[in-house]
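can u do me a favor
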């Protein structure tokens, strides 16, 4: 993959920032004010095919968070995150989390647990699937 266009990336150390679309949102808490690279994936870093909405990189903690803001189609969200995860492998960090912020989470808790285990085993990622709004601390 070629380097990301500069207009896709916002670098900052905001204590609190939000990514949102329609009625889905994720609030990021960055209490230690670490340097963050906030990448707009959908329509910027990836313009064709399946893609998630956002990618957040924190160099200091070697952490990448992929974000998909969804209505209710969780299986499609997982496909979008999988494609973005693979496509953006050159810029992602070793500690990877996927967040799906859904308007309504249709999967039963056993299905979510099974999916979480499968993704951890096959992709090495931690999945967070919650109804919107989701709050996520970058200070973990």
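np, heres the sequence
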């Amino acid at each position: 993959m070629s380097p990301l266009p500069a207009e896709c990336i916002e670098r900052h150390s905001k204590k609190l920032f939000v990514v949102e679309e329609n009625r889905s949102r994720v609030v990021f808490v960055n209490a230690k004010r670490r340097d963050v690279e906030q990448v707009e994936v959908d329509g910027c870093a990836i313009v064709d095919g399946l893609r998630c909405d956002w990618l957040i990189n924190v160099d200091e903690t070697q952490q990448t968070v992929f974000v998909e803001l969804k209505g209710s189609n969780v299986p499609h969200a997982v496909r979008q995150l999988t494609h973005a995860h693979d496509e953006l492998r050159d810029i992602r960090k070793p500690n990877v989390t996927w967040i799906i912020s859904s308007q309504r989470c249709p999967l039963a808790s056993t299905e979510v647990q099974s999916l979480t285990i499968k993704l951890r085993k096959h992709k090495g990622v931690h999945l967070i699937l919650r109804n919107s709004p989701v709050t996520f601390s970058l200070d973990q």
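The first helix runs from residue 74 to 87. hope that helps!!
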